[in-house]
Amino acid sequence: MRELHRLRDAIAAPRPEDGAAAQRHLDQLTKPPGSLGRLEELARRLVEIRGGRAPAVDCPVIFTFAADHGVVQEGVSAYPQAVTAQMVENFLRGGAGVNVLARQARARVVVADFGVVTPLPARPGLVSRWVGNGTKNIAREAAMTRAQAVGAIEAGVALAEDAIAGGADLLGLGEMGIGNTTAASAVTAVITGARVEDVTGRGTGIDDATWRRKVDAVRRALEINRPDPDDGVDVLARVGGFEIGGLAGVALAGAAHRLPVVLDGFVATAGGLIASVIAPAARHYLLASHRSVEPGHAVALGHLGLAPYLDLGMRLGEGTGAAVFIHLARAAAHIYTEMATFKSAGVDGPRA
Amino acid sequence: MRELHRLRDAIAAPRPEDGAAAQRHLDQLTKPPGSLGRLEELARRLVEIRGGRAPAVDCPVIFTFAADHGVVQEGVSAYPQAVTAQMVENFLRGGAGVNVLARQARARVVVADFGVVTPLPARPGLVSRWVGNGTKNIAREAAMTRAQAVGAIEAGVALAEDAIAGGADLLGLGEMGIGNTTAASAVTAVITGARVEDVTGRGTGIDDATWRRKVDAVRRALEINRPDPDDGVDVLARVGGFEIGGLAGVALAGAAHRLPVVLDGFVATAGGLIASVIAPAARHYLLASHRSVEPGHAVALGHLGLAPYLDLGMRLGEGTGAAVFIHLARAAAHIYTEMATFKSAGVDGPRA
């Protein structure tokens, strides 16, 4: 917990004057003011996040954390639990969606086992931050102990700080875990106050009967566990997941180090929600890469005050939306640093 | 005209079986079916466009065509006409938005003068396809002769075919021309049948009084010129622009050569509309990179049956939206060609 207190104390809101200075620079570039729309808004936010420094996205890192979820016992997923470990193997061989999209974006992917049930032998490229043998079934009991919750968050913090020490300048959140949209629905319902049926979706693609079981499982998880919405660690411990805790830790570390933290889909955003309960100023460092088709995602982003940049009907997770977004962040950075000004290019401004 | 007839005869709709085969491949990749949303739809479209070949975006080229517009005499723009030539200079020095975004996307920008009023001395990097000394004022007479309209289109075809011969595998449309959103509004109103006030926007950022003048100028352009909506060359000649004609030519050449043609904003899409009147099957080769804030853009895209991939509040033109879209096209291509299949990765599919 000492680690979490240190981070929370280090996280402060960006200074508005940095954003205002960025806007003055953007308005001098050879384009009608505001005509690059959200790319300009993103450039301004990147400058604010970095404390006034010119934006750069030279060394993005995506954290793809994997763990299993006891709630699969309730029959809430279309896929068997073995797929979590199989997909980790796929990540390590570079064949998954996040690998392909991260390669294109020149982003490193940190693949970490936060609690996969199927044993994953140690090997190069696999980071073990095993917190437990999957969570307990949240429809019946707490997902994990409070000590495990703190451990998961602190493991995420440590991995992020390693990457930051190595030069990372943008942190993307990604995840894999059969059953983890059920945990994300529970976390989102608790923290946003939304109704369970409004934040529970089809995950990997379930039918109506499975969806009703999933809604019922989330309802029971909230009734039995009664998480405290003002205590992010409690929410994580009672209805979250190990990988969600790890991602909350990455978000806190990014905010403390004044780096952009890029949310992915619904599950990664649940990690962002937990981080924002632990340290409310952390939300200023979060960027919403895209809007997932999971209905709870828009609810969570709205609660965080974030508008997504992409809306491509994606619902894969893994960090795939964060990877695609890196191109937009780079575009914003390049506009800010490379475009000519009206003065330097000898271009007339609008008529007075 | 012989050239246009040759192209029109060469343009055929893609074969649906190529798209179906692409979908079968996409459904075998290690992700829940459809979970990459519009990136999958885009991959399928790229395969269809290429006649069944695996998609690749190795050599994208953006055509940024510039010309002036006599309708600026009506006081429809916030910027003086001299800015068209000044921005061409900016393109040639690499300082404009499209340069910055194209560099990031590893796209070549072809900058061509189709009829800029301020003389532009010849120099490396500037392609001269000068059709006339700016168009006439469409609020009073036809923009250009029919021969000039054909010449502009054929010049665009020739530039596109040069690029294709050099290996171009994606053609992006971009433009610069003070006053050209007024021409685009007229073209869009004629071809889509929409009301003038619904397809006339703020361009570079005009005030209410200027907007009313602009609407009035477009209305008079349609009344005086009475373009034939079933004759794309006539629409171009009466109310279009030289650069819009050139972009229509690029679109026709791309469709004839079975390459993806990426629209940019409102003005570039007016070129796409003209191409689709000349050769209706050309629309199958058009991709809508983004939705501009110009209100007529959504009307034009709807008429073409296209849904934009990005919605970033952009309204700069030049090809900037097309440049940003290249990253999405590459993402779609990489997903299609690089992701592991369930079988190759040993990942279980959904439970039966």
List keywords for this structure.
352 residues, 5,6-Dimethylbenzimidazole Phosphoribosyltransferase, Chain: A, domain 1, Rossmann fold, 49% helix, globular
**Helix proportion of chain A:** 40-55%
The helix count of chain A comes to 14
CATH topology of the largest domain in chain A: Rossmann fold
CATH homologous superfamily placement of the largest domain in chain A: Nicotinate-nucleotide-dimethylbenzimidazole phosphoribosyltransferase (CobT), large domain
Tell me the greatest interface.
Answer: A-B, 59 and 59 residues
Can you put this structure into words, describing what you see?
By secondary structure, chain A is of the alpha/beta class. Chain A folds into two domains: 2-55 and 336-345, Nicotinate-nucleotide-dimethylbenzimidazole phosphoribosyltransferase (CobT), small domain (5,6-Dimethylbenzimidazole Phosphoribosyltransferase, Chain: A, domain 1, Orthogonal Bundle), CATH 1.10.1610; 60-330, 3-Layer(aba) Sandwich (Rossmann fold), CATH 3.40.50.10210. Helix content of chain A is 49%, strand content 9%. Chain A is built from 14 helices and six strands. Chain A has helices at 2-10, 16-27, 37-49, 82-93, 97-104, 146-165, 180-192, 208-225, 232-239, 242-256, 266-278, 295-304, 320-338, 342-345, and strands at 60-67, 108-115, 126-128, 170-176, 261-263, 286-288. In chain A, strands 3-2-1-4-5-6 form a six-stranded parallel β-sheet, with helices on both faces. The longest helix of chain A is centred in the middle third of the chain and has 20 residues, at 146-165. The mean pLDDT of chain A is 97.
